[in-house]
Amino acid sequence: MAQYEHLPIFRKAVELGVFLDKTVRNFSRYHKYSVGEEIRGVSRKIFLLVIRANSARDKGKDLKELVETCEMLKTLLFFAKEVQAFQNFESFKSSSAMAVVLCKQSQGWLNSSLKKSRNRQPEPKPGRPESGPDR
User: Fold this and answer.
1) Residue 122 class from Cβ within 10 Å (0-12 exposed, 13-18 middle, 19+ buried)?
2) pLDDT tens profile 30-64
3) Which among 15, 89, 104, 110 could disulfide-bond with 63, CB atoms 3.0 to 4.6 Å apart, if both were Cys?
4) Contact between residue 63 and residue 112 where contact means Cβ atoms under 8 Å apart
5) What is the pTM of this model?
6) What are the percentages of helix, strand and coil residues in the chain, rounded to 5?
7) Angle, nearest 10°, between helix axes 89-119 and 60-82?
């Protein structure tokens, strides 16, 4: 089992999840059980995706899903601001700033993973002549 507690992105994801859980508690009843529940669910999904991506041999697919989910969270936070679910602008500002940091970290991890996979060129198998139009 891969270790993930040391990852900065995991710590940020948990920090954001806890912050959003506390923030959604202050939403009105209508928003708490609609957009608030969706925000909390997506924030929990993010740190679960970090664990899954860290454990995967081929991280590309999981990291792409992580990046998409982070973007979805940013969009949900913006929507919640527009429907005035946040009690004050400071809670929106803090949560969106944390989400932006998380998006940047996940995109950086994806870029790094893609760069590593491009550097690993498949080696030709020994004993098999290459066939082509010249031969």
Assistant:
1) exposed
2) 999 999 999 999 999 998 999 999 988 888 899 99
3) 110
4) no
5) 0.81
6) 70, 0, 30
7) 160
